[in-house]
Amino acid sequence: MSGIGIIASIIDGVLVGSVYGLAAMGLTLIWGVMDVINLTHGSIIVAGMFALYLLTSALGISPYVTLVPVLVGGFLIGLALYWVAVHRMIGQAPLMSLLSTFSVNLVLIGLGTALWGTVFYNVPVSLPGLTWQRYTFPGTHILAAALSAVIAACLYVFLYRTQLGKAIRAVAGNRQAAELVGIPTTRVLALAFGLGVALAGVSGMLIATLFPFTLLSGDAYQLKSFVVIVLGGLGNPAGALLGGIALGLLEGLVTPFIPVSWTLVIEFALFVVALIAFPGGVFALRRS
Amino acid sequence: MKLIALLAAVTAIAVTPAAFAADDTIIIGMTQSQTGSLNVDSVAQYRGIEMWRDEVNAAGGIAAGGKHYKVKFVSYDDQSQGGRVQQLYTRLIVQDKAEFLFAPYSSGLTATAAVISEQYGKVMIITGGAEEKTYTLGNKYLFQVITPAGHYLSGALEALHSKNPKARVAFVYSDDPFSKAVISAARDQAKEAGFDVVIDESYAPSTTDFGPIVNKIISARADALFGGGHYPDSATLARQIYDQKANLKWESLLVAPGDAKFATLGPAALGVSTGSQWELPVKFTPQFGPTGKEFAEKFKATYHIDADYHSASGYAGGMILQHAIEQAGSVDPEKVAAALNKTDVTIFFGHVKCATEPGDHGMQVAHQMVVAQWVEENGRLSRQVVWPRDAASAPLLYPIPSH
C-alpha cells in the first residue's frame, strides 16, 4: 500500500477514534467517580443511535441539531438509572453494581428486540468531505471528530473550572471528606452518573451519523470503550479522548500492513500489555 | 324399551368420531432466533413456514394414506446461539415428540441442529443453512431446499465476466462459516475465469469501522468487490464504500442487499448486487402450489410486508415436506425420507431436488440462484433480477455510476 494510503488510513483512524474516545468518556467518568462499571453503556449508545434515527425521520430535523435533545434526554435517563439501579450499590462490592447494571442492560435489549427486532437502520447523512489523491475523508467523519473534541473540551472546562465540576472531582477523590466539607455527595453522584450516560448517548448519536446500526451494535462499542479506558486511564476523560484516538490510530496503522482479520488480535494484545505495564491506565490521574 | 334404545343411540353417536375433523396431528419442531443477531432473517424464514402451516390446516390438513393430518408446530427461541440449539432440538425430539424438524436459520446453527437430528434419526428440512460441509459428514435425514453456499456468488462473477473479463477483483468478507464457504468457491471460480484477485481478506464479524479496509481496496485499485457477510456488516461496508468514494464498478455483497431495508442506504445502495434464492420477477411454472405472484400477494396480505427470499425458502420447505408426506402416503419417517430422496419437482421457488449419495446426501442440486441488483427506476431505487439474462427483469447495471 502506498505511503499516501497509509497516511490516509491513519488520519481516518484518528477521526473515528475521537468518537470512540467520546464513547468511552462517559464510562470512565462514572468509573472514576463512583467505582461503578456501567454495563448499560452499550445500550445507551444504541439508544443514542435510535434517538438520531427517530428524531430525524419522525420530526425531520437536521441530524446534528439532535445533539442537544440527546444530551438532555441522556442526562435525565442517567439520573433515572442512577436511582433505580446504582444508588443502593454504591460502596458495596463492585460485583453488585456490575450485576445491577448488567440486568438493566438485559431488560433494555430484550424490550428493544421485542419491540423493534434487530433490523438495521441507516440515517443517510452526507456532508462534503476532503479528497486527497484517491482517498476521501467523509465530511461526517470530520464533523464527528470535531464535535467529539469540542465536547471533551467542554467536559474538561466543566470539571476543572466550575463549582459542580470541582465537587464531582472531590467526591471522586474522597467521598467522606467531601461529605465533611458539606458537598451533597449523593446528588453529586447522581449528576455524575447522568453526565456519563448523557455522553454515551451523544456518542451513539454521532456514531449513527457515520455507520448503519442495529439494536445490538452497542456491544462492540462498549468493548472498545473498555480498551480505551485502559489506554487512557481510569477516571480521566481527557485520557479517554486520547485513548480513543490511539485506538483509532492503531486500527488505521495496522490495517494496511497485515490481513484485516488480525486487527482485533493486535488491539487486544496491546490492551493486555497496557494493563500489565500501566495498571491504572496509561494516562491515569491516580496511580493505583 | 324405548329409553334403552334412546340411550344406545346417544352412546353410539357420542363414541363415533366426527367424519370431517382431522384424524390426527403431526408435530413439527424447530427453533427460531427471536433474539440475538440472527433475529431478522430467522423471523422472515419462520413467517414463510408459518404461512404454509396455516394454509395447510385451513385446507383440512396433509392428506396421507386416507387420513388427514393437521400440522402443529413446537418452536423455541434459540437466541442465535449454538448452545441453545443443541439443548432445544434435543428437547423437541425427546420431550415434545416432534416427528419432523425444520432447521434454524444460518449455516452455523443448522450444523449444530443436524448433529442432534441425525442422532435421533429425524427428518429435518433445511431452509436457511447453505454451507455444504454439513451434508458431507454422512447423513440420512437432512434435506436442503436452498442453493448451497458455493453458488451464492457464481452468477455475480459470471455477470462481471460478461462486462469486464479482466477486472481486478477484491474479496473482503466476514470470518464466519457461511461467508467463508461462499468466498472459497467464488475464489476458485474467479481464478478459473481469469480475474486478477488483488485483495483476499476476512474481517472479524464484529468489525464496526470498515474505513481502513476501504482505503486498502482503493489502494489496490480494485474494480470489483465481492464479500460482506450477513446483515449489518454488508450494509456498513456498502455505505463506507460510497462515503469514501471508492467508485467501484461492481459490488456484490452477501445477504443485506436482499432486504428491502437496504434501500435506506440511499445512493450508497445503487448498483449493489447480491445472490438471491428467490425474487418475485423470476417466473417458474410450478407443478403444484401457488405461483410466485400468488405467494407474494398472500404473504403481503398476511404480514403487510414484502416477502424476501428467506420467507420464500421457509414456505418452500413446508411445501416440499407436505409433498413428500403425500407421496409416501404415510407419516412414517423412513417412508417420508424415501419420498424426499425421490423428490424432483418445480414449485414457485424453482426446481428442487436433493442429492442422494452418502457423500453429500441432502444437498440441493437443482435450485438456481439469481443475481438481484439495486437499480434506479423513475428516480427510485428498486431491486431487480439482472442475471441470468433469460430470467432478468432489468438490464445489468455496469459500471456502477461514479460520484
Total of helices of chain B: 11
The CATH top-level class label of the largest domain in chain B: Alpha Beta
Overall pLDDT confidence of chain A: 88
Shape of chain A: globular
Most extensive chain interface and residues per partner: A-B, 48 and 41 residues
| Largest sheet entry of chain A | 2 strands, antiparallel
Structural class of chain B: alpha/beta
What's the domain count of chain A?
A: 1
CA-to-CA gap between the ends of chain A? 42 Å
In terms of topology, how is this protein built?
The complex is a heterodimer of chains A (288) and B (403).
Chain A: H1 3-34, H2 41-59, H3 67-86, H4 94-116, E1 130-132, E2 135-137, H5 139-161, H6 163-173, H7 175-180, H8 185-210, H9 218-232, H10 237-254, H11 263-277
Antiparallel strand pairs in A: 1-2
Chain B: H1 2-15, E1 24-32, H2 39-58, E2 62-64, E3 67-77, H3 82-94, E4 100-102, H4 107-119, E5 123-126, E6 142-144, H5 154-163, E7 168-174, H6 177-193, E8 196-203, H7 211-219, E9 224-228, H8 231-243, E10 250-253, E11 272-276, H9 292-303, H10 309-328, H11 333-342, E12 344-347, E13 350-353, E14 370-377, E15 380-387
Parallel strand pairs in B: 1-3, 1-4, 4-5, 5-6, 7-8, 7-9, 9-10, 10-11
Antiparallel strand pairs in B: 2-3, 11-14, 12-13, 14-15
Helix pairs in contact in B: 2-10, 3-4, 5-6, 10-11
Question: Would you kindly provide a written description of the structure presented here, covering whatever features stand out?
Answer:
The complex is a heterodimer of chains A (288) and B (403). With 288 residues, chain A is mainly alpha-helical. In chain A, 72% of the residues lie in helices and 2% in strands. The longest helix of chain A has 32 residues, at 3-34. Chain A is globular. Chain B folds into two domains: 24-147 and 282-360, 3-Layer(aba) Sandwich (Rossmann fold), CATH 3.40.50; 151-276 and 369-391, Rossmann fold. Chain B is built from eleven helices and 15 strands. In chain B, the strands form three sheets. In chain B, strands 8-7-9-10-11-14-15 form a seven-stranded mixed β-sheet, with helices on both faces. The longest helix of chain B has 20 residues, at 39-58. The relative contact order of chain B is 0.13. Classes of the chains: A mainly alpha (288), B alpha/beta (403). Chains A and B meet through helix 1, helix 9 and helix 10 of A and helix 2, strand 8, helix 7 and helix 8 of B.
